[in-house]
Amino acid sequence: MSTINAQADNASRHAALNATAGCVHNWSQTLVPTTREAPSDAETPSHIFLVRAGYIRQVGAGIYNYLPLAWRSLKKISAIVREEMDAAGASEFLMPALMPIELYKDTKRDVDYGNLLFTLEDRHGRRSALGPTHEEVITDLMCGAVTSYKQFPLNLYQIQSKFRDEARPRAGLLRCREFIMKDAYSFHLELEGDAGLNHTYDKMYQAYTNIFTRCGLDFSAVEAEAGPIGGSASHEFMVNCANGEDTILHCPSSGYTANVEKAEIGERTWSFDVAPSAEITKHHTPNMPGIDLVAEHLGVQPAGMLKSIVFRRVGTEAKWVVAVVRGDHDVNEGKVRDAVGTAVELAPEAEARAAGFAIGYVSPRTIDTIKMTLVVDPDALNAESWATGADEKDHHITGFNWSRDMADAIAGGKVKVADIRNAEAGDPSPRAPGAFLETRRGIEVGHIFKLGTKYSSAMGLSVLNKEQKKQDVIMGCYGIGVSRTLSACIESAHDENGIIWPLAIAPYHAQIVVIRPDDEGVMDEANKLAAELSQQGFDVLIDDRDDRPGSKFKDADLIGIPLRFIISPKTIESGEIEFKARADEGKAELIKREDAVRAALAKCESIA
RNA sequence: CAGAGAGUAGCUCAGCUUGGUAGAGCGUCUGGUUUGGGACCAGAAGGUCGCAGGUUCGAAUCCUGUCUCUCUGACCA
Predict the structure, then answer these.
(1) Are residues A168 and A256 in the same domain?
(2) What is the Cα–Cα distance from A243 to A425, expressed in whole angstroms?
């Protein structure tokens, strides 16, 4: 963990506190519109609490106001990101959010990104885009700004609002159309060595580990698919949380961790040579979309069926690919791509029908009538008898047997066996023989990629190297969803009463709940304590509202400030003060007034 | 994009079937009484019922169109 520039006399101060004096704010002078009820459409905890606790208000679908509390937390996350990025040798700068659409032409991302790209037209009829990421802008910038190999390596980053026209924004800040992101781009002429991509990639991996650790998050770094952004290697940083959107596979024995798109499956035994146990029988199965319905009708389990998915190779001649998996498994497009050696996409239904595929009723036997590549998952081979499509509308068959019914194709080497499905809990580990994969859920908050020369070659970013040869620049890119990190943190750290912030990214470190602020001396005492805490680097929120104690306690739980003091006429009378951590169960404890700051400092050590 | 649902007060919702000029709770404001886990009493403010057409003597309510938002799925650095 990197250190903050601490003053000499505060060398032991907790890293989550300010190095210099913290701020003191009064609740009555800021905007924290808490509500008793959440909007009815809020369903996930982070969405409910962000709204109820007065952090965000919705403006449109996937577009939110960040109110003062949220903005303070976002700034703290950003500050940690900046410190770690700077410490890792990256330089902050800022690109525009708005850019001419032409920038996306060379890389074809205006098409590849599709409707996800926000576009608009200005008064002159020019089309522009709101940046979803900035590979093109920075590559274009580098084309003109970097002239010599001696300027590499470079790593530049920005923190900025990003725009994606998500088909379905959801869950508050978790999936927005406008969101805050840190994106970094690195440039190299080689992979290895101190100046190479791999070195920077490793530094970013470490910086991300530092960032999410300092944010107080429970997270995993997982191997990931590069996706449409392209590139050769990538890792995702996922906040572990039970209701996360993404599935992670984990091998407890080897520590192998990958997301479901990437996760490999260990060795599985399989054979074509299984004696048939039944004749092929045709069944009429009309109006049964989905494996489950057909299986039920045929009286078999989904695991007793074969699922045949028709893909089309992207941009080549021999175009059809049929991927066969067991009925209860899901085909993994990336693995199919790797198995057949070219990019594939789900075949458009109309075209596949025109080519002779009985979509919805396709079986491996289609290979007898249509020229195609057949890829089969090992788990789709071993049974004596399978139920599958009849290659004819509204019909399925039972009794299919690979060795008997596909003998010619197998003998001709036309049946390729490969791991082409999503891994599941219980699958053999790819790294530790005898071990089995487990699943977890997570929310992606960071992603690092080795891009290679995808963008530089498409946009002509090249320089003369030492040997005076023109060379495409090798790139990496590194993203962090700043606003998503805020909500992911709440997803994993809350109780039924509200948010429980880690010290490092809480909007304030400490809150002083003032009971009877109108009573003589109580506010004075609160201000005095706030000043003392502030001197020690605490950011302090004083709840000075003239409200009943019950409401103030409820609101305090809701907004989730880590440390809480309670001052009332009673505590002043006895020379004491009440103190508790938000994460602690039960009531606050009474401590001596003069011990207040010391108690707060000590608590920082135990909770953060 | 497919399927489903919802737009009435700051928030949660009722009213719509069976048309007659709009309600409750919470919140807000005033006064009073209160003050340790979302108090109480009295009073007040606040809505051209998403928008546009249509039917009708009369539309929140019926019809048509349209916009917006949400959920499930597909999609997704």
Answers:
(1) yes
(2) 17
Task: Considering only residues 444-503 of chain A, list those whose CB is below 7 Å from strand B.
Answer: 444, 447, 477, 479, 497
Q: Which two tokens stand for residue A20?
A: 């210099």
Which tens digits make up the pLDDT trace of A30-73?
999 998 888 877 888 999 999 999 999 988 889 999 999 999 99
Number of domains in chain A: 3
Nucleic strand B under 7 Å from the C-beta of A560: no
For the segment A159-185, the average pLDDT, to the nearest whole number, is: 91
Domain that holds residue A24: 8-30+508-607
A433 belongs to a structural domain: no
A364 touches strand B (CB under 7 A): no
- For residues A453 and A528, membership in a common domain is answered with no
Is A81 within 7 A of strand B by CB distance?
A: no
Residues A224 and A89 in one domain: yes
- Distance from CA(A172) to C1'(B54), angstroms, rounded: 39
The CATH number covering residue A462 comes to 3.30.930.10
In a domain, A426, yes or no: no
Q: How far apart are the first and last CA of chain A?
A: 14
Q: State the ipTM, two decimals.
A: 0.90
A348 CB burial (10 A radius; 0-12, 13-18, 19+):
exposed
The answer to whether strand B lies under 7 Å from the CB of residue A132 is yes
Query: Which nucleotides in chain B lie less than 7 Å from some protein C-beta?
Result: 1-2, 10-13, 25-27, 34-39, 68-77
Provide, in whole angstroms, the distance separating residue A165's CA from nucleotide B28's C1': 37
Residues 150-179 of A with CB under 7 A from strand B: 162, 166-171, 175
Same domain, A234 and A347: no
DSSP conformational letter for A256: -
Residue A131's nearest nucleotide, by CA–C1', is B77
Q: Is the CB of A238 under 7 A from strand B?
A: no
Compute φ and ψ for A31, nearest 5 degrees: -110, 105
**Whether A303 and A383 share a structural domain:** yes
Q: CB of residue A308 closer than 7 A to nucleic acid strand B?
A: no
Task: For residues A137 and A93, give the distance between their C-alpha atoms in angstroms, rounded to a whole number.
Answer: 13
Which residue, A485, A445, A425, is CA-closest to A260? Answer: A425
Percentages helix, strand, coil for chain A (3-state, rounded to 5) are 30, 30, 40
> Is there a single domain that holds both residue A513 and residue A568?
yes
pLDDT range class, residue A1, cuts 50, 70, 90:
very low
Best CA proximity match to A452, nearest among A261, A233, A227, A206: A233
Reference A115, options A50, A164, A49; nearest CA is A164
In a domain? residue A37: no
Nucleotide of closest approach to A444 (CA, C1'): B77
Which positions ≥6 away from A571 have C-beta within 8 Å?
A577, A578, A590, A593
The answer to whether the peptide bond before residue A569 is cis (omega within 30 degrees of 0) is no
Per the domain annotation, does A501 fall within a domain?
Answer: no
